[in-house]
Amino acid sequence: MGMDGDVNLVAARRRLVFLAGRRSMAEMERILERFLERELAGLDDRACAGFLELLEESDADLLDWMGGIKPIPERIDRSLMARLGAHAREHS
């Protein structure tokens, strides 16, 4: 990865932290912030892009998908959603 890739990844990670801290549900905000505290440094370009897409979804849907109440739509990165759900269960 060149300099531009590094800069873009840093910017994507900052955007993730910013968006995770501004959710409509405090519970979802805490889950996302804790997840990013633990996982952010290990997220590559692809994972950051998937996470940014995830943050476009409603908090209610995210919680329902993590809890298995609703099936996860095909458009959502299932591996990332599984990691987020596992993290939420570990820290609840």
TrEMBL record:
Keyword Chaperone recorded: yes
Pfam families: Sdh5
Keywords noted in UniProt: Chaperone
InterPro entries named in the record: SDH (IPR005631), SDH_sf (IPR036714)
Family under the similarity heading: Belongs to the SdhE FAD assembly factor family.
Name recorded for this polypeptide: FAD assembly factor SdhE
Protein species of origin: Candidatus Magnetaquiglobus chichijimensis
